[in-house]
Structures are given as C-alpha cells and as structure tokens.
Amino acid sequence: MSIEQAYELARTRYAQFGVDTDAAIRRALELPVSLHCWQTDDVAGFESRPGAADSGGIMATGNWPGRARNGDEARADLEQAMALVPGVLRVNLHACYAETDSFVERDRLDASAFSRWIAWAKSRRISLDFNPTFFAHPKADDGCTLAHPDPDIRAFWIRHGQACRRIAQAMAEAQGEPCRLNWWTPDGHKDLPADRWEPRRRLAASYDKIFDDPSVNPALCLDYIESKLFGIGSEEYVVGSAEFCQGYALSRDIGLCLDMGHYHPTETIHDKLSSHLLFGKRLLVHLSRPIRWDSDHVVLFGDDLKNVFLEIRRGDVWDRVAVALDFFDGSINRIGAYAIGSRAARKGALYAWLDPTDPLREYERQGKGAQRLALMEGFKTMPFSAVWDRLCEQAGVPTDPEWIADMERYENDVLVKRAAP
Ligand code: RNT
Ligand code: ZN
After folding, report:
1. Which of 37, 193, 231, 294 has the fewest CB atoms lying closer than 10 Å?
2. Cβ 54 vs Cβ 317: under 8 Å
3. Which of 226, 257, 289 to mutate to test the pocket of ligand 1 (most atoms within 8 A of CB)?
4. Is 184 a catalytic site residue?
5. Is the pLDDT of residue 22 over 70?
6. How far is CA 143 from the centre of its chain?
7. What is the residue range of 331's domain?
C-alpha cells in the first residue's frame, strides 16, 4: 500500500472522531523546534583556551567517530541532521561555540564571534537561539559562577551574561525575530553547605545586574531561567533549584525553562505547564530523557514526551511554550541522535494535534471516566504512522526508518574521514 492510500484510510478513521488530519499535519509542521548545536561535538565547544577543564556536571559519554571539531563541521552536521527532520527548525548555540581568530575571553565576546553562525543561519533561513556558557571554564572549576563568594569571579560571570544578552539581541536583529536566551548555571555544593541562603541571594543579585540593561530590548531577547535537581559535584545543593528559578522568573517577569531531566527520577514536567502558565508569561521546554538521573539521553516518542505536547495542545499555549532539544550522546552516530530526537519532537506535536480533545472534554464534563480513559487509550493505537509518513512526505524528508540509509551514507562519506578528536 502506498503512503497516499494508507493516509486516506487514516484520514477517514480520525475524521470519525472529528479530527482533521490535514490540519494536524500543517500545524505540527509549523511549530519551531530548536536544534541544539552541542550534539555535534559532545558539548566541547570551539574555544581555544589552554587548560580548560570540564565542569558543571555536564557529562557527555561515548566516543563515536566523527565529532565536530570546528564551526564548519558542526554546521555541516546540522545541515545533514536538518535534512532528516520535517518542519520548522531553529538552531540553538552556546557561547562556547564562538569562532574567533584568536582566543577571546567569555566576558569580552560580542556578536562578531558569531558572525559565521549568523550568516549561515540567514542563508538557511533559520533563526538562532542562544545560551551563556557557565561551565567548562577555569573560573567555574569549583562549580560556582554567578553565586560565587568571590566578587571578582561573580563580576566576570555577570559580564559574560551581559555580553550574551547583547549577542542574542544582535542575532534577533539579524533574523528579524526574537532570540531565546536560556540561563543555566551549575552553582551548588557536593555536600551539606553550612549556608544555603547567601548563595541564593547572590545568584538573584547577579541575575538582577544582568537583566537590568536598558540597551537590551526584552522583546528581542527572550530570557528563560532553568533549574536543576542536582549535578555531578552538586548532589546536595543546587543554588538555582526549581523553587528558586520559578520564584525568580515570576517575580522578575521572565521565562522559565523546564528540562525533562531536571526533576526527581519519577517526576515528569507535563503537569507543571498549566500551573506555571497561570502566573508566568512563557516557558521553554528542554526535551531530554533522563535514565536514573539527568543522563541527557536522546529523547524518544514516549509517554513523557507525548504528555508535554498534549498539555500544550489542551491548554492551547503553542505561542507561550518554546520547544528546544537538550541531549548529548557521543556513544552512537550523532546525526542519528539528532534525527531520532528531533523527529520524536515533531511526532509529539503531530500526536497532540491529532488528540480528540473535544470529545475527551465532553466525557469529562459528563463524569464518564471510563469512556474518557478508553478514548485516550484507543487513540494510542490509531493509525498514527500513516499520518506521520504523510507528514514526512509532504515535508520532503525520508520516512521512518528509511532515513537510516541517509545517516549511514553521511557516516561513510564524511564522519569516518574526520581524524580522531
Ligand atoms: C544542564 C542543562 C543545560 C545544558 C545545556 C548545554 O543540565 O540542561 O540546559 O544541558 O545548556
Ligand atoms: Zn537543559
């Protein structure tokens, strides 16, 4: 049976429940999904600082051949990944992906360090998002940055933050639409701190200094702040905890970022959307997959992911929730990792647009709990794959799992030829 024939049957089946599959495909393709550049190189970055050490609990494992070693290789990998993912994509950069002729310290970076990325994005007609990099730096070696007790180190990181907002603004101006800027710092303690209070006061004060910058237009630079439960080396105490970040975001009227891997092992994020957006103006979600901890595994099309998208749909908050990927796996083909995770995100959007939201609400209104559960369960085995194949075809990308051949071709033609990192 052809994709077209299978799709016609699926369209009829979904229509029996009032679901318009053509509209669902169109809308699912429209959602911007931000591709994180750091899956190309296991979050190593391109700075040429002697003696830089990994820190901050960011840990990519694996040594698959072909890690990107510079901007050109990263962009080539992103282009190959994007060719395998349907729908609107953005690209998310970290400050450590600056490209400069000679080494430039992070507090002195400006938009010129990203001119190649900006030109590339323009030529590809995609928009960029941005992140300050508060890890993998000698001044973050003890796991503290914006909350550091040393005022000079704090001032350094504040200057880095201020620089990043100006860079984000320049990206926004170049692309003619806002740049989303996500704030995550690793600050914390491995073991019981004597003082949990002062670091939080310092972190809030540092953020206040960064955000109090009249030269940055908050309509162009959209700030989000991301919490974490723990990291390697900050097991007992994280300064930017969930409560800290939510309180900060609400009191300062900025965005909040929910990362799927940053909560207790059985805690999922989908229930948080309706609570937060009742009071806060916007959210960013980092799609990731924790296994036992914040392991940053490639996100899959599972219940956790579906539920995030269902909440966006059921609350009709597509314009208030930004979607970005955040995983890094160096143990498998990295293009494959991109394709699997980004395609899962797009499937999540499609799944949500195919949701029988109105009949479910009607059952709920009538107090028919079994009917509600049966319809939810029944929709899990509707002919979703026929609609997904149609979406891929419409977007001009390979279907599942045919894209494996594209990945293998790129591996043989490009990745294996790169010298070992
Ligand atoms: C770290 C956070 C953060 C990073 C990226 C690289 O735990 O999830 O979002 O993964 O900024
Ligand atoms: Zn994250």
Report:
1. 193
2. no
3. 226
4. yes
5. yes
6. 23
7. 26-355
Contacts for 415 with CB less than 8 Å, ≥ 6 apart? 65, 66, 333, 335
pLDDT the model gives residue 49: 74
**What CATH number is associated with residue 44?**
3.20.20.150
Is any atom of ligand 1 closer than 6 Å to the C-beta of 185? Answer: no
Q: Among residues 41, 73, 129, 226, which one is catalytic?
A: 226
DSSP symbols for 375-409: HHHHHHTSSHHHHHHHHHHHHT---TTTHHHHHHH
Q: How many whole angstroms from 3 Cα to the centroid of ligand 2? A: 36
- Look at residue 71 and tell me if it is in a domain: yes
Q: Are 178 and 221 in contact (CB under 8 A)?
A: yes
Per-residue pLDDT band at 321 (split at 50, 70, 90):
very high
- For the record, the structure tokens of 394 come out as 């419409």
Q: Is 347 a catalytic residue?
A: no
* Amino acid 420: pLDDT: 56
pLDDT the model gives residue 59: 77
The pTM (predicted TM-score) of the whole model is 0.97
Whole-number pLDDT of residue 54? 56
Asked whether residue 279 is domain-assigned, the answer is yes
Q: Residue 290 above 70 pLDDT?
A: yes
**Domains: count for the chain:** 1
Residues with CB under 5 A from ligand 2 (ion): 259, 286, 326
At 283 the pLDDT is: 98
Helical (H) or strand (E) element with 89 = strand 89-94
Which ligand sits nearest to residue 39's alpha carbon? Answer: 1
Query: What's the CA gap between 2 and 6, in Å, rounded?
Result: 6
The answer to whether position 369 is within a domain reads: no
Q: What spatial distance separates the first Cα and last Cα of the chain, rounded to whole Å?
A: 46
182 in any annotated domain: yes
With contact defined as beta carbons under 8 Å apart, do 221 and 163 qualify? no
Tell me the ligand closest to 287's alpha carbon: 2
